[in-house]
Amino acid sequence: MKFPNIDVTRKLQLQDIIDGNQAGRQVLEYPLNNREYPARIIFKVIPNISTGVANVAKDLVEGGQSILANVTSSANDPSEVTESVSGPGKGIELGLSAVDGIKQFHKEAVSLYGNVREEAAYDESTDKTTHQISLYLPTAIAVNDAAQYDNVELGVIGGVAEQALQQGKSVLRETGGAFYGMAANEIGAFTGRGSSMGSGMADILAQKRASKLGEIGQSAALGMQAASKVTTNPNTRAMFKDTPLRTFSFSFSMIPTSAKESAEIKKIVKLFRTELYPSVLSAGKVRVGYKFPNRFKIQLKSGMRNAKSNDDMNVKFLPTYLTAFSATYNANSPLLHTDGSFNQVDISMSFSETRALTKADVRDGGY
User: Fold this and answer.
1) Which of 50, 241, 304, 307 is deepest in the core (most CB within 10 A)?
2) What pTM value is reported for the model?
3) Any idea where the domains of the chain sit in the sequence?
4) pLDDT tens digits, residue range 269-279?
5) For the chain, what percentages of helix, strand and coil (3-state, to nearest 5) are there?
């Protein structure tokens, strides 16, 4: 169908609606007669509504360029006034106009992106769904939470900065003084003029100075370390990096007991496979891009009369993408039904949540 005289975003939105209406909303289920064990896992399709981002992207790019230009012009201002920040070592000169540029950067960044605050838990009530597949509750549903940390070596200067922040001191003042002071002491220890220092500290500083003198110096530093039995403390810390996306896998074995159930299984397999793939965007006969696949809303329901949705089962999922699907036909027998359909269909699928969980999701949303 053609949509003349309307913008591209609206065209895609209308096409989404038409595609959904043409396909019709499917509500599929296996097994069809499930009275003995009412617990279910339900997969609902969340249609992706296309959104135009060209204007938003333009605003972000122009805003970023404005901020960058402000800071760059301030930092390169030849008439900038400098301020001396003294420490235990030599003073550090800081361009005041550069500082003004950084302040302006912060001001414009807050104006552009808004004040930083904790994000609220995901609100699933906004999810609009279409097709639905209801299957029996599988065994061994694994829900794994994880966080990723890096081992980072702060070194001496990083350790000084950490202590300064914890004690409410100026990081620039403390680290600047420590840097210049340590450099001077390294030279003194290496040249034998560090007699006023404790032997352990002098050994460490001499090793650090030697290690900076190329490959030979590094070998000398190792020899000094072996002889003195003293080495530097890397001040290793566990630094939080990220939380990975949660992934889930499910497997089902479907054995039809009637022609109607066999037809239902075929529809279930086709719907899962359909929703795994993206739509192709073409210009003429050239494929220029993809439209994301639809997401799934996964729910667990106990089927108990007194239960409230899936809350009683203590397992919730953020919207997910279907990342893998496989179907195995007639795993245990080569026989077919009289209508030519398979006597057994085993399916396996993997899902990935669309974003990482947050503390608010778990604490307030129950995910």
Assistant:
1) 50
2) 0.66
3) 8-46+128-146+245-365, 56-118, 150-240
4) 999 999 999 99
5) 40, 25, 35
